[in-house]
Design a protein that fits this description.
single chain, Butyryl-CoA Dehydrogenase, subunit A, domain 3, Nuclear Transport Factor 2, Chain: A, 2 domains, globular
Length: 295
């Protein structure tokens, strides 16, 4: 696919974004250690790509171009949190491990928290090859990194993942304050009862809604249409829970309340009023990698 015509670049890339969005998110989520932060980075990368598109000229490898932008956006995000040590000359000379299905499965199954314990260069290389299945040449082009550096990163990263696989997850369980739990329970109870007038009464005047990958609405009047759309379908049942230690509404199939959550909704409160809603109904790929637990 070679995009060269300015007039149809935006439409073509809009379609390409839609096709690649789950794959790009898998990368961004593992780079940041969070499905939610990964979605933020993905949206930042999309905005940067569309901004750069008019002046980009011919793009012979759109997928690689998008992944390069997503990678750089993830690095920008990480730099805001911490800085990683660069490779030494000795590391750059190391040889990549041979293909090993067990290693591939180990990397693909590793949790996001585990990936965060790898240095950035190791993390990106392992994700690209062992999770997403790209070749050394493709990774080199996407990340702008030499093949010896990628080989070194893979060797180190895979070895570290093997070590981490045997370590117990001793992080403390998340907790909600009494007031936070009460607000979450009331919202879910009213929603499940389809008492949407009562739900609307919980909204702050300047409430913000993001229907991820679909729309953004602002203010009580606009956000009210969101509840109307939920009232027209039956495919949901809300339960309280956590997503990556964040309190959340977990959404199960309305016909099978015992099924695993299909997606989730994040809520933000201010002075007892609902100030922000972030609904992942149209971005269910985010839940694929999310660590979710029911309260």
């Amino acid at each position: 696919m070679n995009i060269t015509v300015p007039g149809d670049q935006s439409a073509l890339f809009d379609r390409l974004f839609g096709e690649l969005r789950p794959k790009l998110h898998r990368y961004c989520a593992r780079m940041t250690g969070s499905v939610v932060d990964g979605e933020d980075v993905l949206q930042e990368a999309m905005a940067k790509a569309f901004e750069a598109l008019p002046d980009a000229g011919p793009i012979t490898n759109p997928e690689g171009w998008l992944f390069r932008i997503a990678h750089n956006a993830a690095l920008d995000f990480l730099r805001r949190r911490t800085r990683e040590k660069a490779f030494s000359d000795e590391e750059l000379d190391m040889i990549v491990d041979p293909a090993n299905p067990a290693i591939d499965r180990q990397a693909a199954a590793a949790g996001l928290h585990t990936f965060m314990r790898l240095p950035v260069a190791q993390r990106s290389s392992v994700i690209m090859m062992d999770v997403l299945g790209y070749s050394l040449l493709e990774i080199s082009a996407m990340l702008g990194t030499s093949i010896p550096a990628i080989k070194a990163a893979l060797h180190r990263g895979r070895g570290r993942l093997r070590e981490l696989a045997d370590e117990p997850d001793d992080r403390p369980l998340p907790r909600l304050s009494t007031s936070e739990r009460a607000l979450l329970d009331v919202y879910i109870d009213r929603f499940n009862a389809r008492d949407f007038d009562a739900v609307r009464d919980m909204l702050a005047d300047e409430v913000r809604l993001e229907l991820v990958a679909k729309a953004r609405l602002n203010g009580r009047k606009e956000v009210s249409t969101y509840f109307y759309n939920y009232s027209r379908v039956q495919d949901w049942c809300f339960v309280p829970g956590f997503v990556e230690d964040r309190p959340a509404v977990l959404v199960r199939d309305g016909d099978d309340p015992t099924a695993p959550p299909a997606y989730f909704i994040l809520l933000a409160w201010q002075d007892g009023r609902l100030a922000a809603i972030r609904d992942f109904r149209h971005a269910r790929y985010v839940a694929d990698s999310a660590k979710m637990s029911v309260l």
